[in-house]
Amino acid sequence: MPDSIVIIPTYNEKENIERMIRKVFSLPHDFHLLIVDDGSPDGTQQVIEQLQAEFPDKLFLEKREGKQGLGTAYIHGFKWCIARHYDFIFEMDADFSHNPDDLLRLRQACIEGADAAIGSRYIKGVNVVNWPMSRVLMSYFASVYVRFITGIDIQDATAGFMCYKRKVLETINLDKIKFVGYAFQIEMKYTTIKHDFKVVEIPIIFTDRTAGTSKMSTSIFREAFMGVIQMRINSFFRKYPEG
């Protein structure tokens, strides 16, 4: 069985999902794909189901009822992948803001000794295409804020393009990861580092979506802002590693 699987959470990604699936399966490494869909009303699930006939035993779909949040989608996917013993477990968006070709670079970083690899927009300057300056500044200074509050040396703390070795996700108590929006990404990185795993950042170019609708909202940003403080306070009362 292949050692690598990519988790893609979806909600209304009909315009992107077929191109993304075909692109991942065209890469010169055998990746499996797990799509976790939160009841997309636009027909995303139907597109995936049609493609499952073309890509049996490598394209998987987990259906959930209603929008339950990015974090819960990934936790669901992590548990699914751990149970099937994949060695390298990836996070990636469906909208091509993350270049699927970079999956190979993230995997290589983990082969070469990292326990987790981040596709980082900010490790070498600011590598973002087609974002308005207001959003670039919000994202960049969110990572500055995270470093200040938590003390972790990660340039792109909110990045959603990741590769984890299975042992990381087996060690972390996934049921204690509570945030559901962008704070989820911060919490996962923070917890990984607190467990003394090696995390590296690999420079990528992030390109804003050209099809579909962004899921960013003020409530997601608010959760991330307040969640970092809460996470830091909670860490004073925990011992790592924790069961």
From TrEMBL:
Gene Ontology annotations of biological process type: glycolipid biosynthetic process
CC per GO annotation: membrane
Gene Ontology molecular-function annotations: dolichyl-phosphate beta-D-mannosyltransferase activity
Keywords attached to this entry: Glycosyltransferase, Transferase
Domain Glycosyltransferase 2-like: 6-171
Classification via Pfam families: Glycos_transf_2 (PF00535)
InterPro entries noted in UniProt: DPM1-like, Glyco_trans_2-like, Nucleotide-diphossugar_trans
PANTHER family, alphabetized: DOLICHOL-PHOSPHATE MANNOSYLTRANSFERASE SUBUNIT 1
Family stated for the protein in its record: Belongs to the glycosyltransferase 2 family.
Protein name (record): Polyprenol monophosphomannose synthase
Taxonomic lineage from the root: Bacteria, Pseudomonadati, Bacteroidota, Sphingobacteriia, Sphingobacteriales
